Amino acid sequence: KQPLIEVKNLKTYFPIKKGLLGRTVNHVKAVDGLNFTIYKGETLGLVGESGCGKSTTGRSILQLLKPTEGEVLYEGQNLVDMNPRQLRKLRKDLQMVFQDPYASLDPRLTVGDIIAEPLQIHGMVSGAEKDRRVEELLNVVGLSSYHAKRYAHEFSGGQRQRIGIARALALNPKLIVADEPVSALDVSIQSQVINLMQDLQEQFQLTYLFIAHDLSVVKHISDRIGVMYLGRIVELGDKQELFENPKHPYTKALLSAVPVPNPLVKRERIVLQGDVPSPANPPSGCTFHPRCRECMAICRTEKPELKEVNGQFVACHLYN
Ligand code: SF4
Ligand code: MG
């Protein structure tokens, strides 16, 4: 396994300003110290409730948001230190598919122009070559050249997401960060888009960071899964192991909400108490402690680090 992306102590904070002079009074710690690797050719699923920092993580890796601290190594080069000109060169390798195919496609452009736009920005095609490449990309995502002259609003949600994927593929990327790519779609369409993404991964040797708020969405496509809570990863590891033998109490709670295919298997539903606390004022110690059924005295004061436990990574004092 070769690393494609190595994330080291990544922090992305947003200032909270107050008053006429815009004095910074606090920070939202959206991403608060992440360490993980994305290996070449894998799909790493990233899950957690909304507001846990998943999207900020994806955007910080791609440098669409500037991290406050830490490193993002892409094939060994630190993206965080790069100037815009250096980043532009790597931009084509690192693409994003957005959650909302309704909002992310420009309504004034034809689908052909939407897909060709990144090619033109990077000066990669001209004239007839452009039309040929657009047709190729449309075919690859299950649409046809006939769709190129139409506008995004003429398509269904699933088709729009295919257009978003075609656009992301235009520059032959190495990594695609897919930020909840199926969350806005009907359940019946979700698996079609996920299957398409899996086919494309094989065809083009893509690496995915696949973000979702629901474990059942990433179950099929992921090789490994990371679970986030309040800007940190609380558990990370092999998908099968995570589903069969979850370690962190938060993972257990999330998993208890996933329907079990076999009706004879009874799994206790763990209902999380209270809301996710504000990332501007995270609880002391283990930030999950106010909602944890297994909370101990140490949990209120000491932040557990992500440590290896039987090949998986978990941040919890139960595993010391
Ligand atoms: Fe629960 Fe303590 Fe583990 Fe946090 S560290 S998840 S509070 S047992
Ligand atoms: Mg999000």
Automatic annotation (TrEMBL):
Task: List all membrane-crossing ranges.
Answer: none
Please give one Gene Ontology molecular function term for this protein.
ATP hydrolysis activity
Q: Which GO terms describe its biological process?
A: peptide transport; transmembrane transport
Task: Write down the InterPro entries for this protein, in alphabetical order.
Answer: AAA+_ATPase (IPR003593), ABC_transp_ATP-bind (IPR050319), ABC_transporter-like_ATP-bd (IPR003439), ABC_transporter-like_CS (IPR017871), Oligopep_ABC_C (IPR013563), P-loop_NTPase (IPR027417)
Alphabetical keyword list? ATP-binding, Nucleotide-binding, Transport
Q: Which residues form the ABC transporter domain?
A: 5-255
Q: Which Pfam families match?
A: ABC_tran, oligo_HPY
Q: Which NCBIfam families match?
A: oligo_HPY, PRK11308.1
> Matching PANTHER family, A to Z?
D,D-DIPEPTIDE TRANSPORT ATP-BINDING PROTEIN DDPF-RELATED, TRANSPORT ATP-BINDING PROTEIN
Q: Which family does it belong to?
A: Belongs to the ABC transporter superfamily.
User: Which named protein is this?
Assistant: Dipeptide ABC transporter ATP-binding protein
